[in-house]
Amino acid sequence: MPGSPSFKKRQERTRQEKQAEKEQRLAVRKQQEDKSNPVARDVQYVLSIHAERFHRTLRYHWTICAADSPDRIVSWGHAASHELAETAAQNEIRDLSSGLTQGGRAL
Question: Could you give the CA distance from residue 107 to residue 61 in angstroms, rounded to a whole number?
Fold first, then answer.
């Protein structure tokens, strides 16, 4: 009977079960997204910038490596000044962290 206390308990239990199923589906979907885009996970990066003679000037090279595997370069590039190299590298780290790029060469 719709007005009885047992009906209300069953209705509330059904509502709670539906909410639990919805939360479980969302958790599974988030796990699948994390697996499909491993770069977007919380990864820490190591940034290195060094100067190298290039003709009569200096060229500043930057490399980005994952902190857990510093021997493997995730991304790299070069710029005309230290400030430009630092800015470009920080932008690349931001893109890597957000999943917009998967690494590679950036100028």
Answer: 10
